[in-house]
């Protein structure tokens, strides 16, 4: 899985689906974006549909940034691929 492509996709998910006023980068802290639990749940569902990995919204919050979410997607993807 290409980290740069996943990063671009996560940024695209945030910018295309939610009205965010600031530029999103891999290091943008989710706290700065003021994403509520409903938005985090929506992001979780979108990621599951796109990548086939389940990441609960609380884990997305803990990841803290786009880069953190990308790391979760990659780690879950490799775990599910090797388990399958």
Supply the key terms.
5 helices; 84 residues; mainly alpha; single chain; globular
Structure report:
The protein has 84 residues and is mainly alpha-helical. The protein is built from 5 helices and no strands. Helix 1 (3-17) packs across helix 5 (66-83) and helix 3 (37-51) packs across helix 4. The protein is globular and about 35 Å long.
Helical run tally: 5
Count of DSSP strands: 0
Overall spatial form = globular
Largest pleated sheet = none
Distance separating the two termini: 16 Å
What helical percentage do the residues reach?
over 70%
Structural class by helix and strand composition:
mainly alpha
How would you spell out the order of helices and strands?
HHHHH
Low-confidence stretches: none
The whole-number mean of residue pLDDT values reads 89
Rg? 12 Å
Give the DSSP E fraction (strand runs of 2 or more residues). under 5%
In brief, what are we looking at here?
The chain has helices spanning 3-17, 30-33, 37-51, 57-63, 66-83. The chain has 5 helices and no strands.
């Amino acid at each position: 899985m290409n980290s740069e492509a996943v990063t671009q996709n996560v940024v695209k998910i945030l910018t295309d689906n939610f009205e965010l006023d600031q530029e999103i980068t891999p290091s943008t802290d989710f706290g700065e974006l003021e994403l509520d639990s409903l938005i985090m749940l929506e992001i979780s569902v979108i990621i599951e549909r796109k990548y086939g990995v389940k990441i609960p919204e609380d884990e997305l919050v803990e990841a803290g940034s786009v880069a953190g979410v990308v790391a979760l997607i990659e780690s879950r993807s490799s775990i599910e691929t090797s388990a399958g």
